[in-house]
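so ive been stuck on this for like two days lol. basically i have the seq below and the ligand is flavin-adenine dinucleotide, smiles is in there too. i just want the complex predicted, nothing fancy, no docking runs or whatever. if the output looks off dont worry ill sanity check it later, just need somthing to start from for the group meeting slides
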Amino acid sequence: MEMPTPDPAVLSKKAQLIDRLLTVLPEDAVIHDVMETRVYECDALTAYKCPPLLAVLPATTQEVSDVLKICHDMSVPVVPRGSGTSLAGGALPTADSVILGVARMNAVLETDYENRVIRVQSGRTNLSVSGAVEEEDFFYAPDPSSQLACAIAGNIAMNSGGAHCLKYGVTTNNLLGVTMVLMDGTVVEIGGAHLDSAGLDLLGVVCGSEGQLGVVTEATLRILHKPEGARPVLMGFKSNEVAGACVSDIIKSGILPVAIEFMDRPCIRACEAFAGAGYPDCEALLIVEVEGSEAEIASQLSKITDIARRHDPVELREAQDAEEAARIWLGRKSAFGAMGQINDYMCLDGTIPVSSLPFVLRRIGELSKQFGIAVGNVFHAGDGNMHPLILFDANKPGDLETCEAFGAEVLKLCVEAGGCLTGEHGVGVEKRDLMMHQYTETDLAAQVAVKDVFDPNWLLNPAKVFPLAITETRRAPPVAAE
Amino acid sequence: MVVDCPETEAELAERIAAAAGPLAINGGGTQGVTVDGNPVSTRAMAGLELYEPGALTMVARAGTPVVEIADALARENQQLAFEPRDLRGLTGTSGEPTIGGVFATNTSGPRRVQAGAARDFLLGIRFVDGAGQVAKNGGRVMKNVTGYDLVKLMAGAHGTLGVLTEVSFKVLPKPECTGVVRIVGLADDRAVAAMSRALGSPYDVTGAAHLMGGADGAAVTLIRVEGFAESVRYRAGELQKRLSEYGESTVETDAELAAAAWKRVRDVEPFHDRLGAVWRISVKPTDAPAVLARLQPDGAVLDWGGGLIWALVPDGRDVRAAMNGIAGHATLIRGTGFPRFQPEPGPVAALSAGLRAQFDPRGILNPGLMG
Ligand SMILES: Cc1cc2nc3c(=O)[nH]c(=O)nc-3n(C[C@H](O)[C@H](O)[C@H](O)COP(=O)(O)OP(=O)(O)OC[C@H]3O[C@@H](n4cnc5c(N)ncnc54)[C@H](O)[C@@H]3O)c2cc1C
C-alpha cells in the first residue's frame, strides 16, 4: 500500500507549527514528542503504521476551528481521529500530518426525550450515548461491535452499522444534525432536531465522508425507547445454501427480525473452541433475534422456527431465558476474538445481494484453497453484509501480501455479484485502490467534486478513499506562500 | 410548451449536453413546481429493471409511475414503507407521479417517524449531471459505504444537481394489520404531548398525526401501530392505557377505514378544496404548538408527531418571518410571493452553491429553484 511522500516543506515547519498551535491550545493538548506521537501511528488496521508530525486534542469547537485555521494557513494536512478503531486505516496518519483527536470532547449537551433526540460532542463513545439515556429506557440504535470504544465522530465519518441495523438502520438513518468545522476554520451547522433539511441534504453526504469534508464536533442523534424484550433463536443447517434460502424465506414472510447473523463452519468451530457457547457442529448457523412483548416474541419466534423447519435444520434452539440468550450471542460476539486466537486476521466487509449468498460463499471457499489461506465467515445476513475473516501470520514474510491479494479477490467477487466493496467499515486506505472495480472514473469524479467544494486545498485526510492517481494533482502542495 | 421526453439515459445525456439554456426537469409534474426553462420529463424512461422480493430490493427507471411500482410490490405483499405522498390534490396537478420524482424530492409520508424517509430507502442511483455526464453512486445492496453517499445528496436535490435516470431502493413487507388509536378534541399542545408519549413508548408507533380542529369539525389525533393481528391488538391497548390522561380514545382496526384515515394525513386531504397558501414546516415536535400559535393558520395537519406541520394560511403571509427564532424551515408548497425553499444560513448556502456549481456548471438544471 502506497502513501504519498511526506512534504519536506511541512516537515521543516514543525517548530513553527507547534508555536502557533500553543497560542490557541493548552500545552497538554499539543503532542509533539516523537515517542508520544506513536500512540497515534495507526488505527485498528495495524498492518500500517506511521507516526504523525504531531497530534492535537482540542476541547471545544472553537479550538478545533482555531487549529484548522492554522493548519490551513500553513498548508498542513490534518487527519481527524475519534477512537482509532477504524478497520480501513481511515485514521492512519502520514508523517507530515497533524492528527486532530476529538477524544476530549465527550460531553452530553442535551437529552430531549419528548423529541427523542440527544446532542453530544462527537468524541463520546457509541455505547456511552446509550448509557446516557438508559435511565429512561432509551437507547441509540446503531451498535457496531466496537461500540465500547468507537466514537460517534468515527461512526459518522464511516456511517457505521451494527448487528441490529436490519431493523434500525445505520448511522446515517439515525443522525439528524452536526456541528462541523471546515478546513478553513468555518463552523457550519447542518440539520438539527427536525427530521429533514431545508435545502440539499448535506448531512447525507457528510455522513460516510471519512473525515474528508470537515471535522464533526457535535451531533444530534435520534434515540428510541427500548423494546419490551428481545430474544434470539439459534438454527443450524446442513449447508450454506440451505441457510441462505432460510434467510430469504424469513425476510419474505413479513417478519422483520432485528438481527439475522450468519456463521459458516470454520467460524463456528473457532468460536466454539474459544467461547464454548455450545454451538452445534454444522455447516452453517443462523442467529435470528426478534423484539417485543413476551407474547409477541413467542409468536414471531414460532413463525420463524416454522420456516426454519422447512429447511431441515440440524439444530433449533430458542432461548428460554436471558442466560440462554446470552449464550447464543456469546459465540457470535466473540467471533473476532476467536479468529484472532488462531492467527492475525484481516476483516473485510463487502456486501452482496442476499440472493447471491450461497454462490459467494462457495467462491470464497474456492479462493481460500487457491491462495492457501484460511477464512471464516461471520456476517449480518439480513442485509448481505459479509465479514470474511482472513487469517494470516504477520511474522511470516509475504503472508500479509498473500492475504491482501486474497482479500482483493473476495471484494471484486462481491462487486461482481451485484454488491459493493464495503458495507460499514469504509474505504480508508485499505480499499482505496479497489475503487475502480466498483466505480468508473466519471463516478469517482462526481465524489471528488464534493471534496473540492468542502476542502478545496485537499488538506483533510487527503490520501484516503480515492486512488492516489486520481487525486494527485489536487493533493500537490501549493506553491509556498511564505 | 412541448415537453421533451427522452426515452433513454443516453438520449437524456445528449439533450442536456446540447442544451443552450435552462431546463425545467420533471417526472410526472405533480409537485406543482414551476421554473423557467424548456421542460424535460423523465416519464418516457420507465419500467422495472429488477425486483427481488427475498432481498427486499427493486430497481426501476426514474420515469416509472409510482402506481406501477406499488402494484408490483402488492403482488408480493410488499410496499414502499416511507409512504410517498401524492400531492396532486394539494397542488391541483394531474400528471402521474414517478418514482424518480419521489426520490428527487425525498417525499416521505407518515411512516417517516418509524421507518425513515425516502432518502433512507434509496440504495443506488444513476444520473445525468448538468454537463451531460452519466454517473452512478451506491448500488442495490442494503449497506454500502463505498465512497461518498451521493445517493442521499441527490435525494431531495429536486433535480438541481442531476437528473435521476435509475433508482434502486429497499422495500418492506406490508404489515398484516393496522390499528389506529384515535382521540378527539385535543388542543394542539396536548396533542403534541400525547404523540410524544406514544412515539417515546416501546410499541413501535408507525404514525402519529393531528388534524387541527376548526370549521371542518373537531380536532382528531391519530396514533398508528402495524404488524401481526395479535400484536396490533396488544400494542393499541397498551397505548390507550398510556394515553388515558389525554381523554377517551377508540381503536380502529378496519383495514379500509384505517388506510383512508392515513391517506388523508399523507396527502393532506383537508386542504384539497380549500383556498389559500400551503406551507410545509419542519421543526422539532415540541415547537409545533408555538409555531401554530404564531401563525394562527386557517387549518393545520400535524404529521410526524408534530415535527411536520402542513399549514393553510392566506396567500402572501410570511410564514418564515413568523417562525423567526424557532429552529427548522418552511417550504412553500402552494402559493405565491416567496421562494419555494427557505434560504439557508451563509456557510451552508455557500456549500450548496458550491455543489451546484460543480454538478451543474452552466446552471441549467431547474435554475433558481433551490437558491
Ligand atoms: C473489533 C472491531 C469491531 C468492529 N465492528 C464494527 C461493526 O460492527 N460495524 C461497523 O460499522 N464498524 C465496526 N468496526 C469499525 C470501527 O469501529 C468503526 O469504523 C468506527 O465507527 C470507527 O470509530 P472511531 O471513533 O474509532 O474512528 P477512528 O478510527 O478514529 O476514525 C475513523 C474515520 O473517521 C474519521 N474521523 C474521526 N473523527 C472525526 C471527526 N471528528 N470528524 C470527521 N471525521 C472524523 C477519521 O479520519 C477516519 O477516517 C469495528 C472495529 C473493530 C476494531
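The mean pLDDT of chain B is 96. Residues A 43-44, 79-87, 90-91, 102, 122, 144-146, 150-151, 153-155, 157-158, 160-162, 210-211, 215-216, 336, 424-426, 461 surround flavin-adenine dinucleotide (CB under 6 Å).
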